[in-house]
């Protein structure tokens, strides 16, 4: 087995990425404070052709050298918009026809592996602050909650790890089931 060279991977150029069809999926960052986490979410969003990232509250916006360390240029390819509050982002997404889901441990949340996507629907996932998670006021505005099953002693995952798991699952289901 031989590792592939970057030139052999047939990746999109930045211009091709901007023109490519995106998944009907947006990410909302609710007061995420770590520039490295924000950068990692940009990079993961690029990998899965996510439509846009909503950066809310204290969440930093590009350009920023610390964010670039993990984004590696994805902050230049993935679309984003800043909102003063996460509630404003959720209101806009609802107005645009998105089903908005908090990724949070809630009463009645649906485990990610059991969550069924509906064809033709657009989705947004809200990822919360590294310490406090998704604000309760934001959870109250969402159409539902999804949760990543966990089996160990810890009760949470890093927000960038959570983004990777959730975005992969949504991308897989959207591509496999609906051909996006």
TrEMBL record:
InterPro entries named in the record: Alpha/beta_knot_MTases, rRNA_MeTrfase_TrmH, SpoU_MeTrfase, tRNA_m1G_MTases_N
Signal peptide bounds: none
A matching Pfam family: SpoU_methylase
A molecular function (GO) term: methyltransferase activity
KW Chaperone (keyword) present: no
Keywords per UniProt: Methyltransferase, Transferase
Protein origin, superkingdom: Bacteria
Domain tRNA/rRNA methyltransferase SpoU type: 25-168
GO biological process: methylation
Keyword Methyltransferase set for record: yes
Name recorded for this polypeptide: RNA methyltransferase
């Amino acid at each position: 087995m031989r590792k592939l060279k970057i030139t052999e991977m047939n990746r999109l150029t930045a211009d091709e990425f901007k023109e490519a069809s995106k998944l009907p999926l947006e990410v909302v960052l609710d007061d995420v404070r770590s520039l490295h986490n924000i950068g990692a979410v940009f990079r993961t969003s690029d990998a899965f052709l996510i439509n846009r990232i909503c950066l809310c509250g204290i969440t930093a916006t590009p350009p920023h050298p610390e964010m670039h360390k993990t984004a590696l240029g994805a902050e230049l390819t993935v679309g984003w918009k800043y909102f003063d509050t996460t509630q404003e982002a959720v209101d806009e997404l609802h107005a645009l026809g998105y089903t908005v889901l908090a990724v949070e441990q809630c009463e009645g949340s649906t485990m990610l592996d059991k969550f069924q996507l509906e064809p033709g629907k657009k989705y947004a996932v809200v990822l919360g602050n590294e310490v406090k998670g998704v604000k309760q006021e934001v959870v109250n505005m969402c159409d539902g909650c999804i949760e990543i099953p966990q089996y160990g002693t810890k009760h949470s995952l890093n927000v960038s790890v959570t983004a990777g798991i959730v975005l992969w699952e949504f991308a897989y289901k959207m591509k496999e089931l609906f051909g996006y």
